[in-house]
Protein: Glucose-1-phosphate adenylyltransferase
Amino acid sequence: MSAGRVPERLSRRAMAFVLAGGRGSRLHELTDRRAKPAVHFGGKARIIDFALSNALNSGIRKMAIATQYKAHSLIRHCQRGWNFFRAERNEYLDILPASQRVDEVHWYQGTADAVFQNIDIIDSYGVDHVVILAGDHVYKMDYEAMLRHHVEAGADVTVACLTVPRADASGFGVMAVDGAGRITEFMEKPADPPGLPDDPAQSLASMGIYVFDWPLLRRLLQQDAADPQSHRDFGRDLIPALVRGGRAVAHRFEDSCVRARPDAPAYWRDVGTLDAFWQANIDLTDFDPELDLYDTNWPIWTYAEAVPPAKFIHDEEARRGLAVSSLVCGGCIISGTEVRRSLLFTGVRTNSYAALEQAVVLPEAQIGRHARLRRVVVDRGVNVPAGLVVGEDPEEDARWFRVTPGGVTLITQPMLDRRAGA
Structure:
């Protein structure tokens, strides 16, 4: 390479394969009608937008999304918000619902099987590398840095990993590594996670992000499909096999996470529980949030609805439309309501004398007069009746709604209908 020449970005010869078929059962009623990656987050986005935006911002222009559980909401969102790829520029975003493409018996049987059933489609992309992504986490990451690490290390697979306290690592896939970062052992949710060579109190947890060379992955998937004992899963089958018989390398998230400022922490969240989902949304109302949605250098792309600006009306004592330390999206009308440290998604309407505190209100919900809601998640399109009080009496709340171990109350329309009919 001549002096001063900028190396070609590996992302130009890579594709992102997003696994987005999971229900996310720990979100309970929030995923009754939608897959976890389609759950709303951060005011305008869906959870899947983070993986897709990371790929786009990293320079990847070929993507595929494997869907399975209640996929309509997810597919509709991707069709509306991610329809700007142009085939004439060699750009693609394919949505791959489970459709019994291999036989007439099985849907996707696991994460590896979801890729195996679409081998011919990946072949048609003509790529050298495949980045396997989970579609249900919130973070910012430059996959180009991970791709370059993969190539420079001569790895068969590179696994993105988080540094977590060893005491908290039992809920993850955990890696033991040597001093050079080579993975020597890969365990799913071990009771006694291994510590790091340089810090025994910390462990390396898998993020569910993998980089493979496509020819090797293609061969491994075919071998896995022929093994009747396989779980058809990356974390349970393919990765452990490469740890034993190949070269598996750990890539630390700290080396490729995208920070709004140099001293910001490496931000990654699994918002797979109601408490975690509520907290991650409420954290965005902080004066200086760890996740910066206002960073134009690494934007989170999503479906941009054509809605008018948010509107605040009434200026009377006890009937003042205001929001403090809150995010209020377009299309909202805050009519005589006090909103504090809350996140209101697109098209929320509130009525006079209501009060919201630490509330995450999903799109198009209606809040009735004199309602008082604290530490709640309100599902999309819910019509909260006048005078409803939630967040002040946990025992009464639990009679009608789902109250989490962390004291967050989920409100859905069926729950309100049952309460009204009691």
Observations:
- The CA atoms of residues 368 and 386 lie 4 Å apart.
- The mean pLDDT is 92.
- The two ends are 75 Å apart (CA to CA).
